[in-house]
Specification:
Blueprint lengths: L1 E5 L4 E5 L9 E7 L8 H10 L12 E5 L8 H9 L4 E2 L2 E2 L53 E5 L8 H5 L5 E3 L6 E3 L9 H5 L5 E4 L4 E4 L4 H4 L6 H4 L6 E6 L10 H8 L4 E2 L10 E4 L6 H8 L3 H9 L5 H9 L9 E5 L2 E5 L5 E6 L10 E2 L4 E2 L5
Parallel strand pairs: 3-14
Antiparallel strand pairs: 1-2, 3-12, 4-7, 5-6, 8-9, 10-11, 13-14, 15-16, 16-17, 18-19
The structure holds iron/sulfur cluster (SF4) (2 copies).
Length: 375
C-alpha cells in the first residue's frame, strides 16, 4: 500500500497504487435542489450505451430518492454499517476509509450485490421522511423531506474498482482522468463490482466482462458534455475539469464551486476515493443527513447556496448549468451577464443573470387587439 494525499479527507491515506493524478481530471457538479427525478438522464444514457443484451439491468446513470431510495438496494447503508465509526474532526477524517479497513489479504472493504438487489431501481421513490398527516400541506422549511440524488460513476481519483482488479483491466486515462474497463483484458472476476462502494460497475453476463460509465468520452474529446448532462431537464448538471490541489483557478467553474465557494461537495468522501462528481446539498434536508452524505462542509454549503441571490458571481455561475452543450472551462461575469468559454478561450455561451420579463398589455392599441388570459 502507498501513502497518498486525499484533500477531501484533509489527510494522507493508504491506497493500493502510488498517487498519479491525471494531466486533467474530468469532474462535474450536480445541484440536488433542481433535480425533478424525471429520469431523462437515465434514459439518455440507457438508449446511448446500455440497450444491448446482458445490459438490461444496468443503469450507468440512476436517480434515487433519498433518504429511502438506493440502487442497487442499500448499496450505501450496507457499507456505512460495515465501516462502523466515521469520525470527522473538523475537516479532517479520523475514521477509516474502505482501503484502510480492508480485511487481511484484500485490497478494499467491499461487498457484491445479489441479482435481486438490482431489481428495484425506483425503491423509495418520492417516499418522504416523516408522516404527512391528512390535510397537511407543504410550506418551507418543512419537516417532511426527501430529495433526488442523480448518480453516475465518479471517475474517482483513487478508484476502488481499479484497485480491486487483480488483472489490471481497469485504467484511469492520464489525459482526462476518465476511468475505463479494458474489455479485452477483463475476465469477469467482478472484484470491481465488489470494490466500488457506489456500485457503478456492472457485470455483463452475455459478454462475461464488467462495464461502466465512460463519461461519454467520445463527446468529451470534442469538448461536448455527456448525454446525461445535455439532456437534463432540470439543468442541474455542469461538466468540466477540476484542478489539482494547489493549482486552483477562480475562473474555472468547477474549482470555483468546489474549492473556492465550497458549495459543491463529494458524495461519501469518507469512503476515501476522492470522487469527482460534486453535489450542492439539498437545502431542506436535515444537516446531519447532509453531513453523512456530503461530509462536514454540508451546513456551510447550504448557507452559501441560500445566499446566492446576493452573490452575483455564484448566481451567475449557477445560471450556466444546462445553458450549453459545450464543456465550459472558464467563466466570467460582467455586470448582469455571465460568459462561458471553452478550452481554446472562445466564448460558447452568454446568459443574463436575470431573465428579462415581458408583460404584454391586455389592450394593445398598436396592434388593435385585446388579449385575454383564458386558455
Ligand atoms: S434529467 Fe436532470 S432533472 Fe431529470 S432526473 Fe436526471 S438529473 Fe434530475
Ligand atoms: S465510482 Fe466506482 S466505478 Fe466509478 S471510478 Fe469510482 S470506484 Fe470506479
Amino acid at each position: 500500500m502507498a501513502r497518498v494525499n486525499n484533500w477531501q479527507l484533509g489527510r494522507e491515506m493508504s491506497y493500493w497504487y502510488p498517487e498519479a493524478r491525471p494531466q486533467k481530471q474530468f469532474a462535474a457538479v450536480f445541484d440536488t435542489n433542481k433535480c425533478i427525478a424525471c429520469q431523462t438522464c437515465t434514459l439518455a444514457c440507457k438508449t446511448t450505451w446500455t440497450s444491448g443484451k446482458g445490459q438490461e439491468y444496468m443503469l450507468w446513470n440512476n436517480v434515487e430518492t433519498k433518504p429511502y431510495g438506493s440502487y442497487p438496494l442499500a448499496y450505501d447503508l450496507k457499507l456505512l454499517e460495515m465501516l462502523n465509526g466515521q469520525q470527522w474532526n473538523g475537516n479532517k477524517y479520523e475514521g477509516q476509509t474502505i482501503f484502510e479497513s480492508a480485511p487481511a489479504g484484500e485490497r478494499v472493504l467491499g461487498w457484491r450485490p445479489e441479482q435481486q438487489d438490482y431489481a428495484y431501481p425506483n425503491v423509495g421513490e418520492d417516499d418522504c421522511a416523516g408522516q404527512v398527516d391528512h390535510g397537511q400541506f407543504l410550506s418551507l422549511p418543512h419537516m417532511n423531506w426527501f430529495f433526488y440524488l442523480a448518480r453516475i460513476c465518479n471517475h474517482c481519483t483513487y478508484p476502488a474498482c481499479l484497485a480491486s482488479c487483480p488483472r489490471g483491466s481497469i485504467y484511469k486515462r492520464p489525459e482526462d482522468g476518465i476511468v475505463l474497463v479494458d474489455q479485452g483484458r477483463c475476465r469477469g472476476y467482478q472484484e470491481c463490482v465488489r470494490g466500488c462502494p457506489y456500485k457503478k460497475v456492472f457485470f455483463n453476463p452475455m459478454t462475461g466482462t464488467s462495464e461502466k460509465c465512460i463519461a461519454c468520452f467520445p463527446k468529451i474529446e470534442q469538448g461536448i458534455q455527456p448525454q446525461c448532462f445535455v439532456n437534463c431537464i432540470g439543468k442541474i448538471r455542469l461538466a468540466g475539469w477540476i484542478s489539482k490541489p494547489g493549482q486552483v483557478r477562480a475562473d474555472n467553474p468547477i474549482d470555483y464551486l468546489v474549492h473556492i465557494r465550497k458549495v459543491a461537495l463529494p458524495l461519501f468522501p469518507q469512503f476515501g476515493l476522492e470522487p469527482n462528481v460534486y453535489y450542492i446539498p439539498p437545502i431542506h434536508a436535515p444537516v446531519s443527513f447532509n453531513k453523512q452524505l456530503f461530509g462536514p462542509g454540508a451546513g456551510e454549503a447550504v448557507k452559501t447556496y441560500r445566499n446566492a441571490m446576493n452573490d452575483p458571481d455564484l448566481a451567475g455561475l449557477l445560471c450556466l448549468f444546462g445553458s450549453t452543450e459545450m464543456v465550459v472551462s472558464r467563466f466570467s461575469r460582467q455586470g448582469d451577464s455571465v460568459t462561458g468559454f471553452d478550452e481554446r478561450g472562445s466564448a460558447v455561451v452568454r446568459v443574463p443573470l436575470r431573465e428579462p420579463v415581458h408583460v404584454r398589455p391586455a389592450v394593445d392599441t398598436k396592434n388593435q387587439l385585446v388579449r385575454i388570459n383564458c386558455p
